[in-house]
Design brief:
Number of domains: 3
Number of strands: 18
Largest sheet: 9 strands, antiparallel
CATH architecture of the largest domain: 2-Layer Sandwich
Number of helices: 12
Strand content: 25-35%
CATH superfamily of the largest domain: ATP-grasp fold, B domain
Shape: globular
Structural class: alpha+beta
Helix content: 25-40%
CATH topology of the largest domain: D-amino Acid Aminotransferase, Chain A, domain 1
């Protein structure tokens, strides 16, 4: 059975690597001829809007998924409507919602999931009105296409509004309150064909310059995990979802405040490859194929550290007992996620101590609690 993946980045690569032991085959579509998944699976090279390539992908695959939340929705709908009528999972509606921050905010409010105070902004006067309504400090964000801290501006004073508008005002925007959070967490879960849901232990995340640097799991008290799980189940049920879904939260005074969702496998879930009974990648495949979902229990206390810009000398990393290296096969470039490494320890204290030492060796530039 062949699974189609629209997008062939590192997430597509890890999906394929998780699927081969299950006897699955893969076919990817990506504009880049050197895309990471194309190094481990057949690759159709061309634009996501190329109707001929989309038709070929639909014809050759039993189901199509995606590894990037900004895949054009119109392309996926064209494959569903085409002569081969291929099934798309997760749902196109979930992807479309996840592509627009205003749609996300409205969804959270509709499902009684706490989120930030916010306003949509489509003019310079609208930005002034949003600042008056929401207050300062706040964050001005593009509604679409921003990720890893891109397309954002922090406004501390009213005087910051002009520069932020000059930089971002060409696109539809959202202005939201800045949350002085205690920490950031994410919850990852899967919903299958028979409405069954499995949820992974809560992830604690540390960002630097807008990019995820470190994830630790399990993280936080049971009450946080239960809150996050309730919110995640609401979104999964709303979309009659199939596959892995992630929601990221700020935590302030023990209260979870939803930031955004990702309708795909997620960077903060990479620890599950070594650290959980079933990885997020395998469970995504199980879900979209209607197979029984795998257990999500943690096998210990895991830490995942992103490798940004370049891969350190392999011998230096592999000399460290219990450190698992994942090289995405990307060319080095400042600010680019080129790989990650994971460690699993029997206690949280031992994990945290080892993660701090490893982060220091890798010059990750963040503080691990």
């Amino acid at each position: 059975m062949t699974i189609g993946i629209v997008g062939a980045g590192q997430l597509g690569r890890m999906l394929a690597l998780a699927g081969y032991p299950l006897g699955l085959d893969f076919l990817c579509l990506d504009p880049a001829g050197d895309a990471p998944a194309g190094q481990v699976a057949p690759l159709l090279t061309g634009a996501f809007t190329d109707r001929a390539l989309l038709a070929e992908l639909a014809r050759r695959c039993a189901v199509v998924t995606f590894d990037w939340e900004n895949v054009p929705v119109g392309s996926l709908r064209a494959m569903k409507r085409g002569a081969h009528g291929v099934r798309i999972a997760p749902s196109v509606a979930a992807l479309e919602c996840g592509q627009d921050r205003v749609s996300e905010k409205r969804l959270f409010e509709r499902l009684s999931i706490p989120t930030t105070r916010w306003r949509a902004v489509d003019s310079r006067a609208g930005l002034d009105a949003a600042i008056a309504a929401v207050g300062l400090p706040g964050v001005l964000k593009t509604r679409r296409l921003g990720y890893d801290g891109k397309g954002q501006a922090l406004l501390r004073r009213r005087a910051d509004a002009h520069q932020a508008w000059e930089r971002l005002g060409a696109a539809p925007l959202l202005y939201e309150e800045w949350v002085p959070f205690d920490c950031e967490v994410s919850v990852i879960g899967a919903r299958g064909a028979r409405d069954e849901v499995v949820i992974y232990p809560l992830c604690g995340n540390v960002h630097g310059a807008g990019i995820l640097r470190v994830t630790c799991a399990p993280y936080g008290p049971r009450s946080w995990h239960e809150q996050a799980g309730r919110y995640l189940r609401r979104v999964l049920a709303h979309f009659r979802y199939r596959g892995i879904l992630t929601i990221e939260f700020f935590v302030r005074g023990g209260r979870l405040i939803a930031n955004e969702m990702a309708p795909r496998v997620h960077n903060s879930g990479h620890w599950t490859i070594e650290g959980a009974a079933t990885s997020q990648f395998e469970n995504h495949l199980r879900a979209i194929l209607g197979l029984p979902l795998g257990a999500t229990r943690a096998l210990g206390h895991s830490a995942m550290i992103n490798l940004i810009g370049r891969i350190p000398p392999r011998a230096r990393l592999l000399a460290l007992e219990g450190v698992h290296l994942h090289d995405y096969g990307k060319q080095p470039r400042p600010g680019r996620k080129v790989g990650h490494c994971t460690l699993v320890e029997p206690t949280a204290a031992l994990r945290n101590a080892r993660a701090r030492r490893l982060a220091a060796k890798l010059a990750a530039g963040v503080r691990i609690p």
